# Entry
Amino acid sequence: MPDLLLELFSEEIPARMQRRAAEDLRKLVTDALVERGFLYEGAKAFATPRRLALHVAGLPARGQDVREERKGPRVGAPEGAVQGFLKSAGLASLDEAKIVSDPKKGEFYVAVIERPGRETIDVLAEIIPAIVKSFPWPKSMRWGAASREPGSLRWVRPLHSIVASFGPETETPELVPFAIEGVEVGFTTRGHRFLAPQAIEVRRFADYLPALERAFVVLDADRRKDIILHDARDLAFARGLDLVEDEGLLEEVAGLVEWPVTLMGAFDERFLTIPPEVIRATIRANQKCFVLRGAPGPDGRERLANAFILVSNLVASDGGAAIVAGNERVVRARLSDAAFFWETDRKTRLEDRLPKLESIVFHEKLGTQAKRVARIAALARALAPVVGADPALAARAARLAKADLVTEMVGEFPELQGLMGRYYAAEQGEDPAVAAAIEEHYKPLGPTDRVPSEPVSVAVALADKLDTLVGFWAIDEKPTGSKDPYALRRAALGVIRLVLASEARLSLRAQIAAAASGHGRDAGAFADDLLAFFADRLKVYLRDQGARHDLIDAVFALPGQDDLLMVVRRVEALGRFLDTEDGKNLLAGSRRAANILRIEEKKDGRAYDAAPDRALLTLPEETALAEALRNASAEAGRAVATEDFEGAMRALSSLRAPVDAFFDKVTVNADEPALRANRLALLNALRAATREVADFSRIGGEGR
Amino acid sequence: MTATDADLQPTRSFQGLILTLQRFWAAQGCVILQPYDMEVGAGTFHPATTLRALGPKPWKAAYVQPSRRPKDGRYGENPNRLQHYYQFQVILKPNPPNLQELYLDSLRAIGVDLRLHDIRFVEDDWESPTLGAWGLGWECWCDGMEVSQFTYFQQVAGFECAPVAGELTYGLERLAMYVQGVENVYDLNFNGREGDEKVTYGDVFLQAEQEYSRHNFEAADTEMLFRQFRDAEAACRAYLKAGEPGADSNDPRHRMAQPAYDQCIKASHVFNLLDARGVISVTERQSYILRVRELAKACGEAWRRTDAGGLAGASPAGEAPAA
# Structure
């Protein structure tokens, strides 16, 4: 069966767009074919810096014939009806219709319309230019003389030529007949820009791939990646070094070359005094080169080697010597810059940089970075005892935490913020906990990022996030839908993870109030809303951990639940309790009680929230339940007060038997109104007792 | 080859590099212009690029432009960074289909052997917030070093480019350091002579770098600069207004787009100086950039109503302008 070979040859496509573009091309072409009823056996798309290519295998030469019968008017129908029929069926006269007779309807006309299937190549000639003209590039451009007119072709960079060939393996494939202004359509492509610039004739995929390889083009990005990775590892191994692998960088460099040639360069050993993260950032961001690990240093710590791997696009006539020398020069210049930053930055103590933060606006409505630092320091000092940190160290760390933002190094490599502060703090002899906190106060940066455990780090990290959250809530800049420009969801999740991991006991409401006063605001207006936001984030977090979100609701429904650690402990205890038989039965009983109460309270228009009158307890099951409720409530209350949630659940579990017996033997809606009222009060006492641990009415699940 | 010819090899002298590029682009039909006589941050600001990129008329030009980046000054102590440096700028409107090939030929012309050196086109989308301009293109790398920028202008002064111009910017010092094999910009051979007659880049510019760094970071009179910014802004608006066709005139042309644009350039440079002095806060910064952009847009709009801007020549070149 015939194949399609399509190649779109252009100027250099940005590396980050290539993979997606190849996939889009495959999907757009095959979807358009399938939509028109053309099925295929397989399709694969490719991208290099200069081309997108698509191979669709096993297409039919032409589409299926369509035969359709269309019923017309009866024989002898008025002229108008006959003419309408002829016109709609595309017939010249009634001679072309056949007559069918039906025992009920008599004789009538039928038109047989036969449409032969379209040639696949014609369909392709329709599909391809349409896709080219509306290709979904993230950014596209116009070019050349054609761009004088509005609506001229757009592509990611100038598109020069297209190969579009269709045909079976055994015959010479044909050119798909279409034209796009300013673009050559034919069987001609080109090889590597420098190594094989001459035109290449290609007709089918089976020839295309090897022809490109001969012309120094590896079509498949994954193969280019493989080649680079293996060559890089081999080069490193041969020198007794270890490649620092980097998938993002590998993907990018594979999109910068058609013919990868991996080479190794070196830099002066003296640069190894620069922190390894800086060396890596420099070489990676600016040069798109890989760094290498050498033998561990005398202190056993991992060390970079004074070498790097570069990926060139050229088999150079001198074996790459000039390319390596050129790259080494650039790396040397970049590392000299970095060394210069590292030297000069260390000449100024972090605290001496603080005045500069006064001129940096954090947010128009939230003041400067200096003001922010002052707020965070006050909060961190106050939070320190809660997480077991030294208040003075926490305040010190917070004060210095943002100072590296105005260092040369972070100015050049923003991704090193925090880390550089840590280095500089250690260099100027700060307490190790302070240095660590400067780096770690940004953490955790997401659901999988490490949570700091050093108490000083925890204090500053909490203070930083609470200040941010409260600040943005105060100016009403909350996340909406998918928009969360200040990463406030991440900040709230960070607070939750920090509190839980450090088992810190704190009242969020009190902390929100404290943070708000730092902003010179009263938290009253937004504290509830921010607490609800925390509750939502906690629900998402616990759900991801496998907890039932209805249990979280059941706990949050109780008043004053703003201690995250206690909420989680209670949810855990509740979950375990509800897994037991006692728990399930008590839940069923309390639901039944709640239902009865709801109905009766509505009917009577009053609440039955008075304590049951002992004098009105007539049946032994009533007395027993009343007794059990008194004991269980007291016991559960005591247990909750000492944060013994398991104990509270145990106390409640003693209610199961009396509750079951009560429902078994006692008629709640007694004829005697006083008895009825007292029994309802008893049910209310049951509801109240369970509320010692959670709002059972919020619990969903089985048996509802 | 005479001794002078040898001195002027692009691999031997900074001026030889410039002369070679000028000859190369002159051979492609470019007018070889001289630097614009105002302080600018980049060759793009030259009206031969900014204004000529607008409108339908074909245009080919090449020129050297001294570029001033007050913030990049390093008191002459950094071997790679300068507050004053040279760009070689080429603009071809519309861009010819083989612009990449022409660029590579220009590299060959200055002595880069493309079988030895790894040339790469690495994505770099260009945007000038102050000019209201953007385009798509690349950084051109030679053995890992960025030696040029290559841009297809899509918009300038807020207007779509129709047709699109191709712009090439060569970083002359970097390129010269590369072809001369020099590590420090101040060691570049400027005139190609050796011994007593040799003049280096440092001989010409080191003292200037020191003096201007001092000026830019420490001494530039900020009160005067703030005043100059306001004055330039007001003058730009005033000239634009004064250049409008009179109510009683049948001539729809704007008559003072270029003098107005000079004031836009001036405002932009004054802003850069204020920025280097550190007296513009982050929030203010944005509003200053916007103010310059508004000027650039207004100048571009006026330019489009001039002859060179294509008012009368909206038809293809050669046809008589409509009345």
